[in-house]
Each structure stands twice: as C-alpha cells, then as structure tokens.
Amino acid sequence: MDHHYSYSGIVGDVKKSVVARKENGNSASAIRRELMKLPISHQLDRSYQDSAEDNDNFIASESDRQMLLIKQQDEELDELSASFERIGGVGLTIHEELLAQEKIIDDLGTEMDSTTNRLDFVQKKVAMVMKKSDIWI
C-alpha cells in the first residue's frame, strides 16, 4: 500500500478539521481535542494492520506447530516409558531367576558337603575293616 497516499489522506482530514473549527471560532484547545478524537483507523496505515494480522497468523501457526511437536514428544516419551517398564520387568525376572539358581547352587553345595562327610566316614570305616583283616590293597 502507498504510504504517501495514506498519510496525505490523514493530513487532509486534519486540515479540514482545523479549518472547520477556525471558521466556527473554536480555540486552539478545542481544535486539539477535536484532533485527538480522530479515529485510530485514520492514524494507522492499512499495511500496518495487515502486518499485525500477518503477525497474529504467524504466531498462531507457530503455536500450533509447537503444540504438535509437544504432542509428538509426549507420545515418544510414553513409548520410551513403556519400553523402560518392559526392560525393568525383564530385569526383575532375571533377578528372580538368578536368586533361584543361587539357592539351587547353595543346596547343591550343602548336599556335596554332606556327601563328602559321609564318604569320608565310610572310607575311614573301610580302612579300619581292612586294617583289622590285614588286607592291603
């Protein structure tokens, strides 16, 4: 839009207002009050209004884009959370299995100790019997 045309239109409106007031014999303060009453639309250039509308559209568009990105990030975080829960579940299962196997190994060790003690006892008895019977291998 042509700034010169818009500003010259505003200037023309101001001149008309001043001339009309002078012809009616109003004071300078009355003229100043009248000029302050001019609508804002006369004071703003249409391109500024278009720019403001463009800015509002841009801000709305960016806001929508950011909301979409946040929604996508939330969905990805939900998926990550579900994955971590599954991994945690697998970890707990492995832990429980290791505890069970540790118990089995401890029980096996206890049985081995018991068997070793019984075997030692039996070997000593066999040695005594052989000694008494004078049988040497």
Question: Concise description?
Answer:
The protein is an all-alpha fold. The protein is built from 4 helices and no strands.
Secondary structure blueprint with pairings:
Elements lengths: L2 H21 L4 H9 L3 H4 L2 H88 L4
Helix pairs in contact: 1-2
Written account of the structure:
The chain is mainly alpha-helical and 137 residues long. The protein is built from four helices and no strands.
In angstroms, what separates the terminal alpha carbons? 123 Å
- Quote the average pLDDT: 80
> Which structural category fits the helices and strands?
mainly alpha
* β-strand number: 0
Count of separate structural domains: 1
- Give the topology string: H per helix, E per strand: HHHH
Number of helices: 4
Cα-atom radius of gyration: 50 Å
Sheet of most strands: none
Keywords:
mainly alpha; 137 residues; 4 helices; disordered N terminus
